[in-house]
Structures
1.
Amino acid sequence: MGPADAGSDDAGTVEPASPADSATEPGEAGPADLTGVADIGGEPGEAGREEGAGYSSEAGESGPVDAEPTGDGDVPEAAASPMDAAAAQPEGRKIWESAGENADLPPSMRGDLDELGQRLRDDVDPHTWANADHAERTSMLATANDTIREAYGLPAGDVNYPSDFPEEYDGLFDSQTGEVAMNPELLNEPSPDTALETLAHENFHDYQQRAVDGTITEPYAESRREAWRYGSENYDSDDLSAYYTNPLEVDAFVVEGAVLSGYRRQ
């Protein structure tokens, strides 16, 4: 998540890292741009998680977008989705109703995200993480990634840890391949919080992309589609103020914060 993650179809959205205490306010974890700018995490002036979403900057194109600085990603407007609508809406998953006038998370969605955070404790127990090696932590995060994508109504996807991943970023989402890449340094963190925030943030950029391209059509996605389309077309990862106010990032940060809040709640 972070400024690297911007809303353009070719690049990835950038999302600045959010504070340790999750948040639903911009500046914490949040929506990535659907257009392909890298998303970088972290507080302004500080290093943070980076998130790169694979989206292209031109409408109708697709490419890696979300880059999260050690932050979040961008979702292309017309990027083709690898799955059809039916596959992206698993049977039994609750439908999220429309967002409120202030783009607040609808009650059903907020409840689901809180529950998701609590479920992630089963996948990534903080005490188990503290004593786990890299292979064990990688396995735990792969399971968490599946849990997050299922909750978002997305198809299964892998998480990769490229050895040449930019050290200033935390994560990246590639809209062309649907791949979520993570900074391998996150596997060295004493707490799994940043890694889980990154997964929640980057995968939400995938949800946003699918909403913009019409693959996901539930009421919440439709109510935010035009705002995300605008964010994708006007994503600027070089302008920190614009980054934090971009609808893609604002929403992704809120989602990330809601998930982390549930995760931290005993």
2.
Amino acid sequence: MHRHVSENVVRIIEKVWGSEEIVASNLNYNYSGKKMNLHKGGCCSTHFHRFKCETFYVLSGHMALQFWEPSGQRTTKILNEGNSLTIDPCTPHRFYGIDDVIFFECSTYDKPDDSFRIDQSSKPDKMPETMAEDLGEK
């Protein structure tokens, strides 16, 4: 049996809310892996993917993850160190840094044309209003 090992080139992509470190991206085996650095107060865009399924695993910090069910029901969950959550394809979602957060995103292959943004990324002074409402903080 032929075995092959290849070294990955880690790419860092700066974002308004922090950065992504792409550590794995393999179309042939349909997987991707990213180390995400989310700044306190940073918020990614509300977006969804038609095909991509993603699992978030928090290494350090606290983040809020907001998502919408197919019924339209909006939910916000707090993810702490050691928590993990999977977002299925076609599920609108966004995350917000309650403090500085490091988390992993493990997913099916991350195709550049499979991200559909509903709003823009931001670095607000406080948690977005709908997240605060969901958590009873308003």
3.
Amino acid sequence: MEKTNCKNCHTKILISTAKKTNGRCMPCYQDRFLNRLISGIIITIIAPIAIIAIFFYVPFYYIARLLKKDIWKGKWISDWLTERISIKEAEEKYNFSISIENKKWERLKGKIQEGSEIWEFSSPVETWQKLA
């Protein structure tokens, strides 16, 4: 019986085994097969789940934090809202005649859709204390 060396561990194997296993002994071939199977599972199942988690969960998590609580010591931003006002009331109450502010106001008005609301708000003092 003719024998050759395994490509990995250099043990003597039959030529017929080497032809079936691409030059490897059965233990090395099965180990390589298992490693390929595991890496295939990681690539096809675990990696897409991780990508989905990164691109979908992380942005929504931070948006939810910004809109809800945790940033200002557990205070809800909706608690800061004081009064709902109309566009006309806002223009009468606040002077938007300064050119820069007027441009911003006009741009904001252009984005208003049906169902949009304008609210006045007052944030707590502790949110401003660390800014200066």
